């Protein structure tokens, strides 16, 4: 067993400040290099601004398309949850049998609301709306069947669940025909899925282009400081120490480019909201365009930082290693 002496205790105590000092020194060194890399961007304003704008605009397109998909899904969910099943009863079914059917349907766990429209009420409404009221007086009997309107619960209003509920209701002996128009909703879902796939493909291509652009920008910055890098290596600087400011430059490009993308998406969302008001007024709808929330903005900026860091890392790993000091 190791004997714990006073000397060992004092050495143990002195190790703690050394570790803390090393961590603090490393943090300060990283902070200095990150601020210094931001100063390097400031000293080349034209190149920096162009790179930031390219990065921001490249990310704006997929982010805006994501916004359209997000709103399309919101519209689809609103319409889907409001879907209604119409049950047309047999002409031989009287009011008593129809009301008994309404009571049975109310017991369905998938049903939220049931509304019964008698044959006489349906004919009266048709007379008022069609404009053929006088002609309908000559009919010997009412040709319209009694109708039951069934509103599914939110869970049962999804496309597949609504179809299953329609089939179950259509099997009732009093029902002549059940109707649920979901073709348009299925098409909307297919279009939404297609847009999602398009967004994914475009995003991948634009991300690759952003990585290449930032990598090329960092490559030019390395070549411009080739002599300084050779001198630093000559005096003993490691590759990791030399490449750190260039990596931070990629991070700064990502942060600024992400902020530009967020601003561009917000401006476009505001512009589209004004144009959308004209359309929603025609349909007497109060739908509001949903913009990016705080979490989505954070994800967009973080993704831009990741792209900037990836592009700069690829560039510095290749080009800084290739620079070696030469003896004159």
TrEMBL record:
Name of the gene this protein is made from: ftsX
Would you identify the family this protein belongs to, as annotated? Belongs to the ABC-4 integral membrane protein family. FtsX subfamily.
Q: How does it assemble?
A: Forms a membrane-associated complex with FtsE.
Domain of life the protein comes from: Bacteria
Name the UniProt key words of this record, in alphabetical order. Answer: Cell cycle, Cell division, Cell inner membrane, Cell membrane, Membrane, Transmembrane, Transmembrane helix
InterPro entries from the xrefs? ABC3_permease_C, FtsX, FtsX_ECD, FtsX_proteobact-type
Localisation per UniProt entry: Cell inner membrane
Q: Taking every annotated instance into account, which residue ranges of this chain make up the domain ABC3 transporter permease C-terminal?
A: 202-318
Protein name per Swiss-Prot or TrEMBL: Cell division protein FtsX
- Membrane topology field: Multi-pass membrane protein
Q: Which residues cross the membrane?
A: 251-277, 297-316
FtsX extracellular domain: from which residue to which, for each copy? 84-170
* Described purpose of this protein according to its UniProt entry: Part of the ABC transporter FtsEX involved in cellular division.
Q: Which organism is it from?
A: Thalassotalea castellviae
């Amino acid at each position: 067993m190791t004997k714990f002496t006073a000397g060992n205790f004092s050495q143990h105590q002195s190790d703690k400040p050394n570790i803390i000092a090393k961590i603090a020194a490393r943090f300060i060194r990283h902070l200095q290099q990150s601020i210094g890399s931001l100063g390097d961007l400031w000293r080349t304003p034209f190149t920096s601004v162009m790179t930031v704008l390219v990065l921001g605009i490249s990310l704006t397109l997929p982010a805006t398309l994501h916004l359209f998909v997000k709103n399309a899904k919101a519209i689809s969910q609103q319409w889907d949850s409001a879907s209604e099943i119409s049950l047309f009863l047999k002409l031989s079914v009287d009011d008593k049998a129809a009301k008994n059917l309404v009571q049975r349907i109310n017991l369905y766990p998938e049903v939220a609301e049931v509304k019964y429209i008698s044959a006489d009420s349906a004919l009266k409404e048709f007379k008022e709306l069609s404009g053929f009221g006088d002609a309908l007086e000559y009919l010997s009997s009412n040709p319209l069947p009694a109708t039951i309107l069934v509103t599914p619960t939110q869970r049962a209003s999804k496309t597949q669940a609504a179809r299953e509920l329609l089939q179950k209701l259509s099997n009732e002996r009093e029902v002549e025909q059940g109707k649920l128009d979901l073709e348009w909703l299925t098409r909307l879902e297919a279009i939404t899925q297609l847009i999602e796939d398009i967004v994914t493909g475009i995003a991948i291509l634009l991300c690759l282009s952003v990585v290449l652009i930032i990598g090329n920008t960092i490559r030019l910055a390395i070549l411009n400081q080739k002599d300084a890098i050779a001198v630093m290596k000559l005096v003993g600087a490691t590759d990791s120490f030399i490449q750190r400011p260039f990596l931070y430059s990629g991070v700064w490009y990502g942060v600024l480019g992400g902020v530009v993308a967020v601003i561009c998406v917000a401006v476009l969302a505001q512009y589209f909201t004004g144009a959308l008001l004209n359309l929603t007024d025609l349909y007497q709808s109060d739908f509001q365009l949903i913009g990016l929330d705080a979490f989505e903005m954070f994800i967009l900026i973080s993704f831009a930082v990741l792209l900037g860091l990836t592009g700069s890392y690829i560039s510095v790993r290749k080009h800084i290693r290739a620079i070696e000091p030469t003896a004159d």
